[in-house]
Amino acid sequence: MPLLHVSQLKKSFLAPDGATHAVVDVSEFALEEKAQVALAGESGSGKTTLLNLIAGILKPDSGTIRLGGEEMSALSEPQRDRLRATKIGYIFQTFNLLQGYTVLENVLLGMSFGAGEDREFAMALLKRVGLENRLHHQPRQLSTGQQQRVAVARALANRPKLVLADEPTGNLDHANAREALALIREGCRENGAALLLVSHDREVLAQFETVQDLARINRAAAPKEVVS
């Protein structure tokens, strides 16, 4: 059984004019344990919506999402939150760090929603991403590349089975993008997590052995003006 299995997954949204726009229509998609797969998707292809459905942030209109054999769409919202906290790490394009907290506190807070704080492991993760001298800095005191490293450490903090990455290098320059991608991939391998990354960046996609075209998977690939 694959780690992640998506079947007949559909999600639509109402536009301001009242029309219904299908954003996700995925017949089937699977991801094996510890696999690393990139989905190539342009703006409006439904990539963020798809990741949010897999993460349990959004609930589908229909279809199934099985993670580790557990059917996510059958769970209540608190149960989905719990499953996400314990089994999924999410790396957002905009990092989503808490600005009023330190680097270490951002990682520890992420842990608090899972199995609980493990200060030693949090510090080890931050050392692994080269931030052992920035533990007590706040995000605004870091460079963009350093903030992305915090986001990587936080995503791995609860030892997830699956890491989702939504355009994780989109706000980084070329050098920092390559470094961040290497950290994400190495971190997943070291912690035994599968990785599902979506990007439109050809240089990012070229680093993956397995790349799938999201437009082929998602039959409802939305128009570019529709926010994914």
Please explain how this structure is put together.
- Helix 6 links the parallel strand 7 and strand 8.
- This protein has one domain: P-loop containing nucleotide triphosphate hydrolases (Rossmann fold).
- Helix 3 crosses helix 4 and helix 5 runs parallel beside helix 6.
- It has 8 helices and 9 strands.
- It is globular and about 50 Å long.
- 34% of the residues lie in helices and 24% in strands.
Would you spell out the secondary-structure blueprint of this structure?
Layout: E1 4-14, E2 20-31, E3 36-40, H1 47-54, E4 62-67, E5 70-71, H2 77-87, E6 88-91, H3 103-112, H4 119-128, H5 144-156, E7 162-166, H6 174-191, E8 194-199, H7 202-205, E9 211-213, H8 214-217
Parallel strand pairs: 3-8, 3-9, 6-7, 7-8
Antiparallel strand pairs: 1-2, 1-4, 4-5
Helix pairs in contact: 3-4, 3-5, 4-5, 5-6
Low-confidence stretches: 222-228
Second rung of CATH, namely the architecture: 3-Layer(aba) Sandwich
Instruction: Walk across the major sheet and give the strand order.
Output: 6-7-8-3-9
Mean pLDDT reading:
91
Helical percent range? Answer: 25-40%
Share of β-strand residues? 15-25%
Cα distance spanning the termini: 29 Å
**CATH topology description:** Rossmann fold
What characteristic shape results from the CA principal axes?
Answer: globular
The run of helices and strands is: EEEHEEHEHHHEHEHEH
* CATH H level, superfamily name: P-loop containing nucleotide triphosphate hydrolases
What's the total count of β strands?
A: 9
Class of secondary structure makeup: alpha/beta
* Biggest sheet details: 5 strands, parallel
The tally of structural domains comes to 1
